[in-house]
Amino acid sequence: MQHRIVVLGAGYAGAFSAGYLARQLHSDDFEITVVNAEPDFVERLRLHQLAAGQDLRHRPLAEVFAGTDIRLRVARVTQVDAEHRTVTVIDGEGIDRLEYDTLLYTLGSTAADHGVPGVNEHAFHVAARPSALRLRARLDELGEDGKVLVVGGNLTAIEAATEIAESRPGLRVSLATSGELGGWLGTKARRHLLRAFDRLGIAVHEHTTIERVEEASAVAADGTVFASDATVWAAGFAVHPIAAASGLEVVANGQITVDRQMRSVSHPDIYVAGDSAFVIGENGRPLPMSCASAGPTSKQATAAIIGNLTGRKIPTITMSYVGNHISLGRKDAIFQPVDGAARSKSRALCGRTAARVKSAILDTAAWALSHPTFGMPSHKYRLATTREHSPDVVAA
Length: 396
Ligand SMILES: Cc1cc2nc3c(=O)[nH]c(=O)nc-3n(C[C@H](O)[C@H](O)[C@H](O)COP(=O)(O)OP(=O)(O)OC[C@H]3O[C@@H](n4cnc5c(N)ncnc54)[C@H](O)[C@@H]3O)c2cc1C
Hints:
By secondary structure, this protein is of the alpha/beta class. 28% of the residues lie in helices and 24% in strands. The chain contains ten helices and 24 strands. The protein has helices at 12-24, 47-52, 61-64, 119-122, 129-142, 155-167, 187-199, 242-245, 291-310, 352-370, and strands spanning 3-8, 30-36, 71-74, 76-81, 86-91, 94-99, 102-105, 110-111, 147-151, 172-176, 203-205, 210-214, 217-220, 225-227, 230-233, 237-238, 256-257, 270-272, 277-278, 315-316, 323-327, 333-337, 349-350, 394-395. It has a five-stranded parallel β-sheet with strand order 3-2-1-7-18, with helices on one face. Strands 11-10-9-15 form a four-stranded parallel β-sheet, covered by helices on one side. A three-stranded antiparallel β-sheet has the order 4-5-6. The protein starts with a strand and ends with a strand. Bound molecules: flavin-adenine dinucleotide.
């Protein structure tokens, strides 16, 4: 009887993890199934570009996993029954239930509405491809004339506002943020950011908390009404409610609490990686939901799965965060390094070079994710007859 590993999600964390597991584990002993809502690997880091009107390359998951023995199931996960080790999925054929022995949960995150009335009904977001495409259709409807209000002052809000303003110069783009725009950046980077907003004609409303979104406006806490033909909600990410509803221990934003091996603390047969995992980094702070965090959390989760199932030592993967790379349209960007306490350093790389570097990083990441087993050693480890859960990890 094969040990059934089910990987939920084939984004940055899931696609890497599934490919790596397939490369390392013997297919006589292990059956690996990947469930993903979309048939493609979606380059989520470029969804603001998709929304603004640019086309992204299709990367069909069937091609990504070709030749790996991975079973691909294109379906939406609706529930995880952590007690009975089943996953409920729905697709064009109806509802189905998959059984697992080990689950890797990498369903990512979605836009956090913070309970603000009207966001779900009237606002757009860029956290997933379907929602980015809805925003794109709305911007197409507006054509050369309309008001776009981006809500949020962090990375996704900045990237969305600048991309839309650059791609659609006829639209009047503004941004409302409860804090200061890029207030966390070092002096050089912040100056560059504000100049870019000026150049692109984006109006900035700082210290403005949006409390309600309506069909054609957004209303701030002080009563100011911002007319808006398309309100883009980019005020942070939260994890899909599936995790909490499944009985897994989660924190306030829905992220699953894990131990150092990336196992759910409430259900150790469930491993978590990427945005869905609540992980404390080496600096003692929670890792931000980011592609940069998906890398080490996936490596740790897959190393732990392999170690625990095959009886090997589990290396400790360093959980650090080096900085933010923020695009400002296609020709401009900022790379802001941070120190060990996650404070922005005074130096930063800004302008065309930063944009070129970011684009190269994104292309490399997408290529690597689309070729998940390229260049990796192939071991084909067997299932340990006596399964030992290694209590500790060892330094890499
Ligand atoms: C516009 C934008 C720009 C970003 N820019 C950056 C950046 O510059 N740098 C950076 O580090 N991070 C960036 N991020 C964050 C980054 O995209 C995420 O942190 C990263 O994608 C997390 O990887 P993940 O594998 O956890 O989730 P994802 O990559 O989102 O993968 C989750 C997968 O699960 C699938 N899925 C979700 N729900 C279900 C379901 N119910 N059933 C089946 N499948 C499901 C999805 O289709 C997807 O394939 C950006 C995010 C956005 C939205």
